[in-house]
Write a structure and sequence with these properties.
Layout: H1 2-14, H2 17-20, H3 23-38, H4 45-54, H5 63-71
Length: 76
């Protein structure tokens, strides 16, 4: 069991997965999404990622709802 775990860990590192995924950013987006859901937002984590990383907004959501994601509170 230990040998299999070490081999898997070695392969994980050789594939450079830690450099491909930003776990801190993923965690932050998850926290933001869940905390703004409590405030009534329906924007998903994937849409948050597009909003934060690419600056792409949804034409189906109000500006107020999207700004909640950017500053963590309603703009108005």
């Amino acid at each position: 069991m230990k040998k299999a775990l070490l081999e898997t860990l070695s392969e994980y590192c050789q594939l450079r997965i830690p450099q491909q995924l930003d776990y801190s950013k993923f965690n932050l987006y998850s926290i933001i999404t869940h905390s703004t859901v409590i405030e009534g937002s329906t924007v998903t984590e994937v849409k948050n990622q597009l909003l934060f990383d690419e600056g792409i907004t949804s034409n189906k959501r109000s500006l107020r709802e999207q700004l909640i994601k950017q500053v963590g509170r309603p703009a108005c």
